[in-house]
Amino acid sequence: MFLNKQNKTAILVFAHSSAEELRQKPMAKNTALFDVLTMQTLQTVEKTGLPYFHFTEKNQVGTTFGERFTNAIASIFKKGYDQVITIGNDSPQLKTSHLLAAKDKLATEKFVIGPSTDGGFYLMGLHKSQFEAASFKKLAWQTAKLSQQLVQVIVNQGADIIQLEKLFDIDTIHDIKSIISYCHNIPKKVRLALLRILNLFKRLSCLLFCNYQYNYQNALHNKGSPVLLRA
What we know:
Shape: globular
Strand content: 5-15%
């Protein structure tokens, strides 16, 4: 946590510890990827000079994701800040410039959203006057409908909406493949971590396929198997 009450805009990094990320996203097989992603995110945030708060599962309050996320935002406003920029740790393309652009737009009380390719968002910036806890908790969190619903809530308030460029975030192996294929401006250490996960996945997939093929071929030659002879 970095605290500076002279600045009325704070950044909320809503991201689990590496151990919890591994439990929820077992594709990584170990915590190394999440360690790199979190470190890169925090370094990007620190370059803004803005106060920030990192909420892991240890200080999140609520049963559902929507409740925990909404309560985290509310807690930042209760600290006396007028604007909050929220991000996670799973968008390798996120730059300091995205955060500073959001800060500038928030200064004029505009709502800022950075949409992700899966229908969610990697960044949200809002003024305390735009925050309705009850409405936020009801949104379809962690679904492809999220950005659309969130924008509708803000539109109903009559606030201006600024949309940043669309970026990838990481939830699946497919996301990792897309980032490696199409994103050439991510930090080298993040790219290497993603490549290690992808290479491991390819080796495991090959091993599973080879085992399946071997077992299948052996089964075809097992003339005495009552299962295979059954009509």
